[in-house]
Every structure is written in structure tokens, then in C-alpha cells.
Amino acid sequence: MNQYYHSNPGVSSDLLPYKELMVDGHKIREHRHVMQTILKRKLSTKEHVHHINGNGLDNRPENLLVLSHSEHSKLEYLERMEQLKK
Ligand SMILES: [Zn+2]
User: Fold this and answer.
1) Total domain count for the chain?
2) What would the pLDDT profile of 27-76 be if each residue is shown by its tens digit?
3) How far apart are CA 60 and CA 65, in angstroms?
4) Can you give the pTM of this predicted structure?
5) Distance, CA 22 to ligand 1 centroid (Å)?
6) How many angstroms separate the alpha carbon of residue 45 from the centre of ligand 1?
7) Residue 65 sits in which domain range?
């Protein structure tokens, strides 16, 4: 897998740009904050918020999906395969 993305601030593991918010004095990625508000709980670091339409700046609830990291890599793989077909 990509080893560099964690040290690449401003780009999520989807390699998408994202928005950051300040909440209670902490920086948080907007899509994680939106999801936490919907779920009414904190997301764990094992949970990944995926952007269904591939736009990291589109944080509408219907564009967000919570996945474990393994589910997420599977989905990203399938999506990449889909894109190769186009
Ligand atoms: Zn994703």
C-alpha cells in the first residue's frame, strides 16, 4: 500500500483534498465531524469516512460512508477497477 500518504497533510487516504474545522480547539476533518454528528458518537481511528462520489470536499451526509480500513481498501480497489473499465 501507499506508505507516504499519512505524512502528506491536507490529503486524505483517498488522496483527496479535504476541509478542516476547529471543534473545541481541535482540528478535525470536516467529513469526520459531519459523520460524528450523524452517529452522535466519536469515530475511532479504525474507522474511515469514504466519499461516495470521490469528491473530498463534498461532505453532504448522503455522500459519506463509514468503513473499516479493510472494507475501505477493498472498496477503493473495486472503484479503481471500475474506473479502468471506463
Ligand atoms: Zn475512500
Assistant:
1) 1
2) 999 999 999 999 999 999 999 999 999 899 999 999 999 999 899 999 98
3) 11
4) 0.76
5) 23
6) 14
7) 5-85
